[in-house]
């Protein structure tokens, strides 16, 4: 088959292979309005542009190699048109999808080239063999890549505008996959069919493309983790500010309560009817709630527990605590406040949905061998959904909520510890294990 015949076939087949692989990267992306019409129109325009591009290459290529590189790169670049027209995506997302799809396509091409050579078959088969090798196998390969790379990372992509690494991967892909493939394949008439061109070179291209695909998702994972860390740091700063304000508020409440108790004692000395004495007694009981003092050996923890006691009584929640706060004195006060505060707030948010007689929260902090165990449990009759071993927020906006448990994990890992959450019967259990530190 002559070189023009190869180009003509690729004008039909290669764009289809690329589109099949791109579908794996686009299946979970938000679609624009009138998606079907946009898809039909943009694909028609894409194949027309491919035909024009092929004719330009045929007229100018001759026996030079570089135009053939531009041929395949042009096919890839032009796929940005249907993607942009049909999906709600930013430019960096489009580039990511095109680069990932091209890497997927070339991996499949290289695998087929090696397999068919070893089976003594030609890659340029016709009829049903061409259909199987050019379409069915690419669909299978795209599905495989989807479940290995894309499925577990869908809706987790974090594209940083200033991150140019995906663009660098595109250049690497162009050199490794396209450049080498064209160099060892054209012109067809003089290219030897041996182990070097049919096994070693495709294998090298396969490894390069697999590395590009893995590094793309590594970059997204790194960006996501960096963003989550920034959010956690902001949450800790907010918790630090909240700790200071809560400390001041509780000090004021204690002073006022202390003064009020003296005033009530004076009222008891005034002779009055029996109902007045009972009323005074009720006030004393109510005030005693606000005068509760914790001495755990950790001042930040004492303030947290005092504040959470106020909330517990407000929502009629039975709160019990047995805590050796001296064990966690090595932690930064803001970390203590965020860790225990988030754990309690999550527990309180859960138990307020329970009948009043079942609203219970308990906290235990104790040493267990070489580890410190922070154990909190609360009534939970409705089992939450878990993802990555953490409960998923039931609020509608998943992007703005759910940072509480993630900040708890972040703080635990900051001190080389672990966070475990589970539902045991009708009790939700949160265990934080931290190594003992001097």
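^ structure tokens above, recovered residues below v
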């Amino acid at each position: 088959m002559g070189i023009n015949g190869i180009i003509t076939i690729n004008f039909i087949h290669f764009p289809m292979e690329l589109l099949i692989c791109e579908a794996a990267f686009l299946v979970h992306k938000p679609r624009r309005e009138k998606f079907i019409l946009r898809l039909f129109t943009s694909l028609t325009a894409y194949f027309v542009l491919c035909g024009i591009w092929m004719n330009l290459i045929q007229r100018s290529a001759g026996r030079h190699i570089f135009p053939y590189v531009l041929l395949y790169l042009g096919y890839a670049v032009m796929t940005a048109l249907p993607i942009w027209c049909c999906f709600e995506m930013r430019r960096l997302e489009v580039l990511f999808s095109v680069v990932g799809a091209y890497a997927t396509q070339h991996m499949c091409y290289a695998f087929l080239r090696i397999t068919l050579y070893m089976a003594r078959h030609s890659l340029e088969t016709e009829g049903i063999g061409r259909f199987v090798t050019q379409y069915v196998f690419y669909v299978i390969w795209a599905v495989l890549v989807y479940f290995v790379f894309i499925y577990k990372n869908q809706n987790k992509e974090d594209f940083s505008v200033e991150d140019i690494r995906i663009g660098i991967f595109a250049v690497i892909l162009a050199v490794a996959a396209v450049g080498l493939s064209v160099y060892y394949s054209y012109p067809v008439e003089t290219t030897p069919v041996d182990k070097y061109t049919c096994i070693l070179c495709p294998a090298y291209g396969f490894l390069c493309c697999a590395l590009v695909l893995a590094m793309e998702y590594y970059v997204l994972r790194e960006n996501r983790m960096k963003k989550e860390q920034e959010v956690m740091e902001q949450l800790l700063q907010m918790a630090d500010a909240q700790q200071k304000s809560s400390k001041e508020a509780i000090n004021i409440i204690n002073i006022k309560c202390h003064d009020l108790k003296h005033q009530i004692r004076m009222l008891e000395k005034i002779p009055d009817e029996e109902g007045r004495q009972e009323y005074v007694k009720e006030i004393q009981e109510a005030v005693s709630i606000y005068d509760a003092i914790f001495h755990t050996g950790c001042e930040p923890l004492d303030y947290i527990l005092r504040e959470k006691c106020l909330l517990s009584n407000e929502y009629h929640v039975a709160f019990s605590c047995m805590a050796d706060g001296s064990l966690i004195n090595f932690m930064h006060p803001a970390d203590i406040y965020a860790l225990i505060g988030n754990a309690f707030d999550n527990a309180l948010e859960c138990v307020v949905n329970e009948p009043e007689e079942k609203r219970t929260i308990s906290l235990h902090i104790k040493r267990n061998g070489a580890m410190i165990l922070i154990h909190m449990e609360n009534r939970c009759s409705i089992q939450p959904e878990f993802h990555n071993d953490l409960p998923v927020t039931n609020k509608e906006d998943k992007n703005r909520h759910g940072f509480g448990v993630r900040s708890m994990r972040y703080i635990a890992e900051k001190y080389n510890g672990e966070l475990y959450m589970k539902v045991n019967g009708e009790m939700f259990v949160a265990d934080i294990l931290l190594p003992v530190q001097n």
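Residues 1-8, 397-401 have pLDDT under 50 and may be disordered.
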